[in-house]
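Feature request, filed as a ticket because there's no other form

It would be nice if the structure record came with a short human-readable summary line next to the tokens. Right now we just get the raw output. Example of a typical job, pasted below so the devs can see what we mean:
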Amino acid sequence: MALKSDDVRSIAHLARLHLADDEIERYATDLSSILDLVEQMQRVDTSAVEPLANPLDAEQRLRDDSVTETDERDKFQAIAPDVEDGFYRVPRVIE
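Raw output as currently delivered:
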């Protein structure tokens, strides 16, 4: 699919991009080649290919979900400027 300069200008306008006049022809060529590649890929027959959730067909090694740090909330709240009922109080920012 070959894009024309006017197509690139229209796309750039919709994307709110400013392109210099000397860039437009280069972008038209580059975008056209990308669209040609997508078109070529869509012509490939994939009807016999089973979809994969993971291309490596491997399981992830997950670490144990265990507590690794001690609870130090009281220590941190002791140095906080304003605490109430275990929560940090902050100044109101919305009226």
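Something like this underneath would help us a lot:
The chain has a mean pLDDT of 90.
Strands lie at 83-84, 87-88.
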